[in-house]
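Dissemination and training. As part of the outreach component of the grant, students in the summer workshop were shown how a complex can be specified as a set of sequence lines and then modelled as a single object. The example used during the hands-on session is reproduced here so that future cohorts can follow it. Participants entered these lines:
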Amino acid sequence: MDRMEALQQVREEYHNHEMSAQGVEQLNLALRSAQNNKQKNRWKKGALRPVLALMAATLLFVLLPNMDARVAYAMEQIPGIGELVQVVVFRNYTYESDRNNADVTVPELVMAEENQQQLEMTAQEINQEIETLTDQYVAEFTKTLSYEEGYQDLYINHEVIASTQQFFTLKLIVYQGAGSGYEQHFFYTIDLNSGERMQLKDLFLDNTDYLSAISEDIQAQMRQQKAQEDIPYWIDDPTVEEWNFETIKEDQTFYVNEDNELVICFNEGDVAPMYVGCVEFVINQDAIASIRR
Amino acid sequence: MKRLEKEKIVVDILTTEYNRFFRLAYSYTQNEEDARDIVQEGAYKAILNSDSLRKTEYAMTWLYRIMLNETFRYCKKQRKQITEELTEKMTEQLEGKPQDTDQYMDLKSALCQLEMKDQAVVTLRYFEDMKIADIAKLMKENENTIKSRLYRSMDKLKITLKDGE
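and obtained this result:
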């Protein structure tokens, strides 16, 4: 066999490798999830496009601290949400190169009315937290930029998930990709009656064991989903007992949806393998009705 | 071109031509699982960034570039280990085999030991029959660089090119 024949043989072997059926299935799942994620962000990004178009350079950090609040309303992304609290975007950070991509929008809460002192303070506190958090992620991103190798993505976006007479909740979505992706959700909820940050305990009567009531409902839902949809929650799993879900924490992330139902949220890797993603459980009304305020 | 159209083109190529990217990745990883992860990760990134695709006719080239970048990234982490494992595996297989297999194994191992970009050029040119100009586009290098990568590699692989190649 001469060298050319050998090359021919290596070529044949090269073409013999095909993705397994299981691989194809996984790929299709990845395709769908990418499309969904993009779809979710599309209209929001679309609203920002005129602003982004002005920022032609590759690396931008736009700070418009002196912008009049009335101008800010013009940039508002979501029209007509709630009467008291509104979301505006003053700051963006975008970066695009072969190996690094970032698209960060930093939401800020503003009051539509004055004379709402407590609410104003709470909003400022939340704004401060969001700013600190996003600054951290951006700093981490820019630090990694200086390394010559490696790939990374950073996407930060937000949505108002519930705005009723009683509650206002902002959800901050942080996606970090470096090899595999990692998505985290942060929730900021204001009780509009008191103007204060809402905590889980505020939803329940004093001296009630709401943590157990909620946890038990979640366990039941996990068992059901595990059996019916094959979602590999860590529950009743003898392999790593300490990973098994026992109870929610006192500062567990949560929100109240439009139907006044309590929703408990877990980040990736909290209650199931990372690839399952962020998971949410709508708590059965019957499970907590007797102890809810 | 509308953004949704771009995304559709990218999705279409990925769902029909995934094996192209898979075998390319496989030639580096030499195992199914890692090759699969590379393609998946590449596909995910491609869809998220499909808006940045400029022309439809570049979609295939653009996808190859993303997949190759993913592959290279994987290699930087793993390559050394893989090459060692592979050489070991091949030496084992070689013992007691006739001369013919020897040539094939030797070439295969030499190919794996090429610099990763050189390996890509050889693979795309000789296994996927891609044009030099297209390889240059997808690797973002000029055609002469690609040619010299090719000649240098052929030298290392001890293959004499016939005229016109």
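The first strand of chain A starts at residue 60 and ends at 62. Students were then asked to discuss how this feature might be tested experimentally.
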